[in-house]
Amino acid sequence: MSSNIQEDYKGIADTLNRLVQLGVSPIVVCGLEDVSGRSFKLASSYLSEQVELLLQFLLNADVNGFKPIQTSLTRSLLKEVYGCVSAEMIEQVLIPMHQGIIPIVFPIVYNAHDGLQRFIEPKDAMYHICLALTECNTMLSVEKVVFIEPLGGIPSIERNQTSHVFINLSQEITDIISELYIGHLDPISRDIHLANLESLSDILNLVSERTHTDETTGIITTPSVLSLNDDQLNPVVYNVLTDRPVISSSLPSALQRTPQISTSIVKKGFEVTVLDRDCYEEKFKLENLVKSKVLDKDKLVNLLIDSFGKNLRTDAYLDRIENSIATLIIVGDYEGAAIVTWEELKNGDKVAYLDKFAIAKRNQGIPGLADVIFKLITQSHQGELLWRSRANNPVNKWYFERCRGCSRTPRSPWMFFYTGEIYNRRMGTKLDGSEQSKIDITEKLQLYSDLVENLEASFY
C-alpha cells in the first residue's frame, strides 16, 4: 500500500477524531468504487483490510494528540425482503453512537428470501441508513452527509473543471446535469459525478421530506482534502463549525485571488425565480409583472423595508424603475430578492445597475443565500454591472471581493463597484493583428460617478 494512501487514512482518522471533539457522532460507511466486478469474498476481504488500517490509526490517535476512539463493525445492518432494502437493525448504529463509539458499516445486504449476502453501493447504503435515522428524529438529526470521492466535487465549466463550491439543488441541479454532459469529461468520470450528485440529491430530499427542514448539508470531497489537519482548510470540519464552504461560491472564478478547490457543498436550498425580458412575452415593465401576478408588489416592498430597516419612498421608487427593470431575482416566498435596472450614462450608453439587493432579516444568517443571489446577478449581466453602497457600509468588504474595481464619489456619501467581462480586455493586438478594443477606465469611472451621485436615494 502506498505511503499516500496511508497518509490519507491517518488524516481521515484525525478528522474523525476532531469531529468527535466537536460533538459530532460520525457513522462511517465503507465501500468499493465498483461492487459489480468482485466476488463477495474478495470484496469482503478488501474492505476488511481497509477498515483495519483505519482502525489502527483511530486506536493510535494518542500519537497525534487525540484520544483513542473505539469503533464497532456492523455487517448485518441492511436486510432485503421482497426486493425492498431497509436498515432494520438501526440499533446496531444507535447504541454505539450513544456510547461514544464510531459505527463502521459494511454495505452488505442480507436477503431474507434466499439467505444470500451481497454488497451494494455505499451511497445506496447511506440512503437506507438516513431513512432509518430520520425515524429517530427526537434523538438525533442528520446534519452532514459526506461522500469521499477520489475525483472530488462536481466539476464546473466556469471554474475550469475544478469543483462547484456550493450547489443549490432546488435551482441548479438540472443545469449542472446538462453541464456534465458538455463539460468535456470522459464518460466514466461523468457517470461517477452524475451518480454522486443524484444520490446526494435523493438523500437530502429524503431527509427534508421526513424532518420538514432543509438544514442537512451534503459534502463531496477527496480523501486527501478530508485528511487535512486544519480547521480552516478541511471542508468537513469547517462546515461543521460554520455551516459554510471554505470559500464563497460567489467569488469571481476568473480572479487569481480566488482559490481553486476540489470540494462541493450541496444543499437542497432555495427555489429561485429569475425574471427578465427573455422569459416574459409582454412588455417587461413593473406594472405588467404585477398585473400578470408574476410579481407580488406588496411582498417585494415589504422585503425591501425589512431588509434595509428603513422607510421606502414607495411610489417614487416604483415609478423610477417602472420601465427600466432589467432583471428581477426572487428567492422562495420573497425570502430575498435583487432588482437590476438599465440606467443611462451621460454618453448615452446603458449599464446594468444593481439597484436593490435584499435579504429578509430573519434569513440574513442563512449560509449561501447571499452567494446564490449575487452569483445569479453576475451570470445575468456578465458583460458589465455597476452598483453603489454607502462608504461606511460594513458589507463593502464583501462587495470588494466580488468586483473588478471600486471608487469613492467625490460629492456624495456613496462609493461604487463594477465588474464584468469588458474589464477582461487589455491593450494590444489580437491574434489576427487587429487592434484589441480597450476601455478608457478614466472615462468609465467618471460616467459611473456621475450616475451614482445623481440617483436619488430610495429610503429615508
Q: Would you write up a description of this structure?
A:
Helix content is 37%, strand content 19%. It has 14 helices and 18 strands. The chain has helices at 3-21, 40-59, 91-98, 122-134, 169-182, 187-211, 223-226, 235-242, 286-291, 297-308, 314-321, 369-380, 396-400, 441-454; strands at 28-29, 71-74, 78-81, 84-86, 102-105, 108-111, 117-119, 144-148, 166-168, 217-221, 264-267, 272-276, 325-331, 336-344, 350-359, 385-390, 405-408, 414-419. The protein has a 7-stranded mixed sheet with strand order 12-13-14-15-16-18-17, sandwiched between helices. Strands 4-3-6-7 form a 4-stranded mixed sheet. α1 (3-21) crosses α2 (40-59) and α4 (122-134) packs parallel to α6 (187-211). The longest helix has 25 residues, at 187-211. The model is unreliable at 427-431 (pLDDT under 50).
How is the secondary structure organized here?
Layout: H1 3-21, E1 28-29, H2 40-59, E2 71-74, E3 78-81, E4 84-86, H3 91-98, E5 102-105, E6 108-111, E7 117-119, H4 122-134, E8 144-148, E9 166-168, H5 169-182, H6 187-211, E10 217-221, H7 223-226, H8 235-242, E11 264-267, E12 272-276, H9 286-291, H10 297-308, H11 314-321, E13 325-331, E14 336-344, E15 350-359, H12 369-380, E16 385-390, H13 396-400, E17 405-408, E18 414-419, H14 441-454
Parallel strand pairs: 1-5, 2-5, 3-6, 8-10, 9-11, 15-16
Antiparallel strand pairs: 3-4, 6-7, 10-11, 12-13, 13-14, 14-15, 16-18, 17-18
Helix pairs in contact: 1-2, 4-6, 5-6
